[in-house]
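Slide 14.
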Amino acid sequence: MRDLSAVSGKPHSYFGKIEQAQRGLDVLEFIELCQWLDLNLVKSLKDIQSKTKLNKPE
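Slide 15: predicted structure.
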């Protein structure tokens, strides 16, 4: 987490709170997080969608 802090310029407590579900992310923060972690944004969103109820409209 400290490496991520160095790359992002955010304190490690920022990521600790996200990891412990004490803090959420807005869309822009999620995009930044994917960039910092070198993750594919579209694939990450599809993974989230497939693992939640978001994949089935009611």
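Speaker note: Residues 2-55 form one domain.
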